[in-house]
Structure formats: structure tokens, C-alpha cells
Amino acid sequence: MWGLSDILRRLFRTGGPTQLITITCIGVYVLSLVLDPAGALRPRGPFDIFSPSNGALQLLGATGSFPWAHGRWWTLFTAIYLHGGILHILFNVLWIRQLGPAVEELYGPARFFVIFTASGVAGFVVSNFLGIPFTVGASGSIFGLLGAMVAFGRRRGGVFGAMVLRQYGQWALLLFVLGFFMSGVNNLAHAGGFVGGLTAGFVLSLAERRAETTLDHLMAGGSGVVTVLSFALALYTGFLS
Which residue among 96, 121, 154, 165 is least enclosed by CB atoms within 10 Å? Predict the structure, then answer.
């Protein structure tokens, strides 16, 4: 592939997908505040301080059944990196930092990025299809990482596999149940993201069984390119409307 695979391999080895995702989430969150600072400083509840306005989130590519009905497919990718408040992004970034290195180690950094992206998209497809009108956040991807770890435990077997399956399976169940006791949580995206990550975890190779291939790096690079283009489309259509 004219050296493209080598470039992508070096990028995903040295760039640190977990670090890149963290920086992107924080950067996009800050941008959402800057786009409408008056809205961000006008809290709609006791926990809504520094919450981006709906207008800013829509401009940057929030997803949901309404944007989807208007053909804005790119919001499936952009909404992964958008967050509705300081507690929302803090909670999600902490979980990304907790789960990311483990998934990177067991699957490989390029496969990790594919799992993260595919899970987030799968979660939003489910919630959009079932009528959630407006939604943002990386929690679908986070549940996808948990699903991938559960898949690893099932495939790996033995004492280590059983330990991974039990620990991450319990975390997924606990977080999913807690979602029903918190307002504004998109449990449909959580369920869809978990299934997406579980499926990807069964399909993709484990790092200990096979090193990442050219196809893995091309899929990861493609995921990154589509995400960047999706943000460009979101801003283009947002400023035109």
C-alpha cells in the first residue's frame, strides 16, 4: 500500500489511541463551550454548570433520531466525542483511561481504535433507530470496550480469561444497572455499544495470537479519516443552516 501501512503502524504504536481519544474529547468539549459561552454559563440545573448549549452540540454534530431523519449520518461518529457537561466528560474520560490501555494491550492499539469507533457508532444506531431524539457521549464506546474485554475472556479461557471475564462482565452489568437510576442516560446506546464491542472482540484477532496486520491498520486509519471528515461535514452543514 505504498508505505501507508508502515505510517499507520507507527502512528498507532507511538500516538497512543487512548491518549488521542482523551485529548480529542477534551478539545471538542472546550470548543463546544467556546462556541456559545453564554449558554455554557447559564446552567439549567444544579449540575449543569459548564454544560454546552444544545445549539453548540448540534453545530458540532450531536446525533439522535432528528439529525438521522435528515440524513446526517456523520453524527454517528461526531457525537462520540461530544459531552453534555463537566461531570459527563469527567466520568467518560476516566473510564476511557481505565479501559483503553487494557484493550490496547490485549488486542493491539489499531484494533482498539476500531473497537472504540465501531462500538460508539453501533450504540447510536440502536438509540437513533429506537427514537432517542438528541444524544451525545462516549459511553456507548466505553461499553463497547467492556464488551471487547468480555469477548477476550471467553476466547482466552483459562484462569486469566476467567478473571477478565468476571471482572469486566461485573463492571458492565453494574454500570448498565446504574444507568437506570440516573436521569438523561442513554441506556439504549450502552446496550448497542456493548453488543458492538462484544462482536468486534470476537471478530478481531487477539494480540497474543496474531500481530496487527495491514488490514487492522487500514481499518483504524479509515475510522480516523471518517471521524475527521464527519466533523468537517458537521461544521459545514452547521454554519450553512
Answer: 154
- Strand-pairing partners, residue 135, are 63
Note down pLDDT in tens along the chain; length 241 residues. Answer: 444 455 555 555 555 899 999 999 999 999 999 998 877 677 665 556 788 988 999 999 999 999 999 999 999 999 999 999 999 999 999 999 999 999 999 999 999 999 999 999 999 999 999 999 999 999 999 999 999 999 999 999 899 999 999 999 999 999 999 988 887 899 999 999 999 999 999 999 988 888 888 899 889 989 999 999 999 999 998 877 6
Query: Coil, helix or strand for 180?
Result: coil
Query: Could you state, in order of their start, the residue ranges of all structural domains in the chain?
Result: 4-240
CATH class of the region 4-240:
mainly alpha
For the purposes of burial, counting CB atoms within 10 Å of the CB of 65, is it exposed (0-12), middle (13-18) or buried (19 or more)?
middle
Would you say 52 and 65 are in contact if contact means Cβ atoms under 8 Å apart? no
The pTM (predicted TM-score) of the whole model is 0.91
